[in-house]
Write a structure and sequence with these properties.
- This protein has one domain: Rossmann fold (3-Layer(aba) Sandwich), CATH 3.40.50.
- Helices cover 26% and strands 29% of the residues.
- The protein contains seven helices and eleven strands.
- The strands form two sheets. An eight-stranded mixed sheet has the order 6-7-5-4-8-9-11-10. Strands 1-2-3 form a three-stranded antiparallel sheet, with no helix packed on it.
- Helix 1 packs across helix 2.
Length: 219
């Protein structure tokens, strides 16, 4: 499928899929969306010094990079991606410059250069494992404090937003674990609730009225 780099409203890049009219990040601002949905509404609510994170849709590595920049906590980060982007696409992404993170350019490059299926030390406090697999193939149980659920939208990939997938997410989370997503559709909320999540509607990022956060409450 054809992929092309475009500029979003906050000046940061994303990847556009013309065939689906879908983007990896919000056209209203890739970096703004990442901070609002995944850092402010997800990462910052986890009050632990060591945090395990599962990202559903590793994509451009933006969420991973921002998480790395934003904390000195010990992070064990797992990114799931069935169709990794290319080296040429990585080189066209402008996140380092827009984030004014030139001193950490090597870390963004390392995130993309390290091999798949192995755990790597990106920084002294940040471990990264990239796994090339479909979301339905995830078998982790009680492993993660936080899930960044950043799959393509239900309009183009409805199979990623089913009860079956959210059951996998629920199982992968530890007790009191949190899942955050930019999505706010009623069908998504109901699927999350059906598998056991306590679901909150939160104010959305630029361009979206609402987003969802689910918590795996203790039994």
């Amino acid at each position: 499928m054809k992929r092309e780099i475009i500029i979003t409203s906050d000046g940061s890049t994303t990847i556009h899929l013309p065939e689906w009219n879908e983007q990896y990040h919000s056209i209203h601002g890739a970096i703004q969306e990442a901070y609002h949905v995944f850092i402010k509404s997800g990462f910052e609510v986890i009050k632990k010094e060591a945090i395990s994170i599962l990202e559903i849709g590793f994509g451009t590595g933006l969420n991973c990079f921002i998480t790395l920049l934003e904390t000195e906590k010990n992070i064990d980060y797992v990114g799931i991606e069935a169709y990794p982007i290319t080296k040429e696409e990585v080189e066209k992404l402008n996140y380092v410059s827009v984030l004014k993170a030139e001193n950490n350019r090597n870390l963004f490059e390392k995130i993309h250069e390290v091999s798949w299926e192995k755990k790597h030390t990106i920084a002294p406090h940040f471990l990264l494992t990239k796994r090339k697999q479909f979301f339905s193939e995830i078998t982790d149980e009680n492993c993660f404090d936080l899930i960044y659920f950043d799959a393509f939208g239900a309009r183009v990939q409805p199979d990623s937003w089913t009860e079956d997938i959210f059951k996998i997410m629920f199982t992968a989370l530890k007790s009191e674990g949190v899942l955050v997503t930019y999505a706010a559709k009623g069908s998504v909320r109901r699927a999350m609730q059906t598998v056991g999540f306590h679901v909150e509607r939160l104010p959305g990022p630029p361009g979206k009225r609402e987003m969802l956060r689910g918590v795996k409450l203790s039994a």
